[in-house]
Amino acid sequence: MAKRPSEINGKASDTFPINEIIESNPGFTRRELLGMAGLAGVMALTGNAADTFAQTTQTKPRIACLVSYWALTRSHADWIICKLLDGYWWQGAHNPSRVEVVSVYIHQLEESALGQKICKAKNIPIFKTVAQAVTLGGTELAVDGVVIIGEHGNYPTDLKGHWLLPRWWIYNQVIRVFEQSKRSVPVFNDKHLSYNWDEAKWMFDKSRELNFPLTGGSSIPSYYRKPEIELDIDTPIKTSIVVGVAQNEGAIFHCIDTLQCFVERRKGGETGVKSVQNITGPETWKWVKRNPLVDKLLEAVRTSLDLKPGYFQENRRPSVLIVEYNDGTKGAVISGLEVGWTYAGEIEGRKEPVIVSMLGMPGPFGQYHAANDLPHWITEMMLTKKEPFNAERLLLSTGITNQFNESNWENGRYSAVGRRIETPFLNISYRSTRGPLFNKGERPPNLPYIRGFDQ
Fold it and tell me: Could you tell me if residue 452 is inside a domain?
C-alpha cells in the first residue's frame, strides 16, 4: 500500500543516515530501508549531501527529478530520467546528456525498486521530501532545474475518470522552496498539469508570478511525423480532427495536446475555447454524419492510412470529443485504433486536407525511445531558460482534458451523450512563434541504456 505524503515525509534533514530515517519515519518498511542502505553508504563516504554538491564544479545544469513512481521500464520516470542520465536519440543521432541529475524524490518509494537501483548505481541521492531534493538537503534552492514526472503509480481514479496523481502536490512543495529562496528555476511537468482545473490554473499562474519557464505536456506533438511537415504560422485552418486512442483521461490528453499543437498555428493565433462536449457509443457516428466536414476529414484519414471502408465504425468503444473555439474554428478528437495519432485539417483555399500521422514505436522497445523528444526539450529549456512552446498551450490542453471528464456527468448521473459545457475560463489567447519541434531522421538502433548495471 502506498504511503501517504504525511507518512513518507519526515522531519527535514541535511543528511540521509539510516538511524535518522528510522527515528523520523517509524512507518518505513524493511524494503524501503534496504533500498536506501546503499545510499547511506555513499553518504557515509562523501559526508554531508549539501556540502558535497556545493563543492562540485557546475559544468552542466543540475536537475532535481521528482516522481510519483519508478518501478517499471514502461514508466515515464524510467523513459525520461534514463535519457537525462545517459543521453537521448534526436534528429537521427545519439546526443550525450547535457544536464546532471543530482537528486531524486520518489513519492511511492517502496514500490519503486527500479528507481532505487538506478539511483544507487549512478550515485544519485534519493531524498525523503520534495524540499530536500530541490535544496540538496539544505535550506535554500540548490538546483538549476526541476523535472516533475507525476505519471504512473498506485493511485485511485475517481468516479468521473480523473486519475488522482500527485502532480499539484509535488509542484506545490517546489513552489514553497522557490518563494522561501526568493528565486526560481525552470520546471518541466510531464503530461497535463493536474486532473483538477483550479490546481492547474494555480500552477500556471505561479510560473508567471515567480517568472520561471514552464513546459510539459504530451510527447506526441514532437514525435516523428509522416510526412515531416509543420503548419505555417497563420495557416487558415477551418476544421481539425485528431484520430487516436481516446478511452480515458491519460490517453485522450495525448490527442488533445496534439490537436492543440496544430490549431494554435491558425490565422490570428489561439483565441481560447468556447465549449467542450464528449459523446460516446453509437451516438458518435450520428454526430459525425451531422457534421460533413468532420466526416470528410475522417474518411481522408482512413484513405491515407489504407484502411478498409467502415474501419473506424467497427471500433467497439467509439467516442468523439467536440472542441469549439472562440473564433469559430472547430476541432474534434475521434477514437481510433491502430492509427497512432493522426491529424487532419481542412485549410481554406486547399482542395485536399492536410494529414499528418505520428505512427509506430519510435524505436525498439529495449531502447525505451518513446520519449526522446521530451528529454531534448527539457534540456533545451534548462540551458536557455526559455519555454520551447507557449505554456498557455499546456494549460489549455489541460483544461480541455478536464472538461472531457466532466461532460458526461451532470447532477451525479452519467450520460453517454455528454452535455455541452461552456468554458469561459478557457479564454486563453496567445500567438505561437515556435518553429518545428518534432523529431525526425533515422530512428534509433537497438542498443541498451547505460544504467550502471546489467539487468
Answer: no
Roughly what angle, to the nearest 10 degrees, separates helices 391-407 and 197-209? 170
Q: Are residues 315 and 345 in the same domain?
A: yes
Mean pLDDT for 386-406 is 97
pLDDT at 206: 98
Q: How far apart are CA 403 and CA 322, in angstroms?
A: 11
pLDDT for the residue 74: 83
Surface-to-core class of residue 89, CB atoms within 10 Å of its CB (0-12 exposed, 13-18 middle, 19+ buried): buried
The reported pTM is 0.86
Q: Residue 196: which domain range?
A: 5-217
At residue 261, the 3 state secondary structure works out as helix
In a shared domain, residues 192 and 300:
no
Q: How confident is the model at residue 301 (pLDDT cuts 50, 70, 90)?
A: very high
Q: What is the pLDDT of residues 156-172, one digit of tens each?
A: 999 999 999 999 999 99
Q: Is 380 within the bounds of a domain?
A: no
Buried b (16+ CB within 10 A) or exposed e, 52-72: bbeeeeeebbbbbbbbbbbbe
Residue position matching grid coordinates 531534448:
376
Give the integer Cα–Cα distance in Å for 382 and 134: 15
Cα distance between residue 277 and residue 298, in whole Å: 18
Do 205 and 274 belong to one domain? no
* pLDDT band at residue 56 under the 50/70/90 scheme: very low
Judge whether 3 and 108 are in contact, CB under 8 Å. yes
Does position 235 have pLDDT exceeding 60, yes or no?
yes
* CATH, residue 296: 3.30.360
Listed in order, strand segments (DSSP E) in 326-437 are 330-335, 341-347, 354-358, 409-410, 413-414, 421-422
Nearest Cα residue to 252 out of 69, 408, 84 = 408
Which three cell numbers mark 85?
Answer: 542520465
